[in-house]
Amino acid sequence: MSVLSAEDVRRAVPMSTAIDAVRDAFRELAAGNFVLPARQIFGDGRVLVMSAYHSPTGTAVVKTIGIALDQVPAIRATVVWTGSGDQLVADGTSITALRTGAVVGVATDLLAPADATRLTLIGTGAQAPDQVRAVLAVRRVAAVTVTGRSADRAAALIKSLADEFPDVKFTASTSIDEAIADADIVCCATSSSTPLFEADALPDRVHVNAIGAFRPTMRELPRNLLATASTVMVDQREAALEESGEITDAVTSGALSTDDLLELGPALSHPPTPAGRTVFKSVGIGPQDWAIAAALARA
Asked: What CATH superfamily classification does 2-97+287-298 receive?
């Protein structure tokens, strides 16, 4: 049995590899090759258990997650991957951030303008750096604006990312509306329970990723954005309707129909033609964790 730390995970699976692995996993999901039990939720969302079984390879992953939004990092997790005679235990906190970034990379590659050069990141927590890494892996971004509740955390995040991407211009903003006004891509990675902005604050052509809200009581995106976007994509329709506050609110209010929700897996075989404003909403599903764990097992 191999036991891998966060540092081991990062060394073995760079973002480009993670994006390819997660893309392949969603193709496998669309092909019906995963058994995917519903996420188990305990203690009003304080503990989650996610699993996925890949039928063609006979391999499975189980992730246990502890969530405390008043701590840093807010998510602490452990991943167990089981194959034919092989077993791997890995730091699930790093895997969660990596796979969440990777799925945003896959969706951004499908939906964001091909000539996108300006990214705005809303949020400065543990998930934030991999949002930037993923977008920069699929688009030639020249400028990144970071905005969040803490100016000190925004400055620290900018410093670390600027060292990693010296050719990209990083700036901080104290105003979300100003930060998104000329963005080509917006990534939301917060634990907000109310929408971070109104649709009118966005440019007419922009792609928005939202990964922070994973409970029905949480919302990062405004209802009017979901109602008017040309494409609203989710990682999995059933999971989004169960766990995404933005999606459940929009569907319950009639602003959005379940038929309007495009799933990522099928979209990889039949890509949409994005126009105007597009949205990707992810709550995270087991095949993403399986993808990173399988990449670790191959490394």
From this structure: ornithine cyclodeaminase, domain 1 (3.30.1780.10)
| Vertex 26 angle, CA 25 and 29, to 5° | 90
Class of domain 101-285: alpha beta
The structure tokens 């969660």 sit at 96
Q: What is the DSSP letter of 200?
A: G
- Token pair for residue 88? 């791997």
CATH 3.30.1780.10 in the chain is located at: 2-97+287-298
List, for residues 245-268, the tens digit of each pLDDT value.
Answer: 999 999 999 999 999 999 999 999
pTM of the full predicted structure?
A: 0.95
pLDDT bin (cut points 50, 70, 90) of residue 8 is: very high
Q: How many residues are listed for the chain in this entry?
A: 299
At residue 210, does pLDDT exceed 80?
yes
E-state strands within 108-184: 118-122, 143-147, 169-173
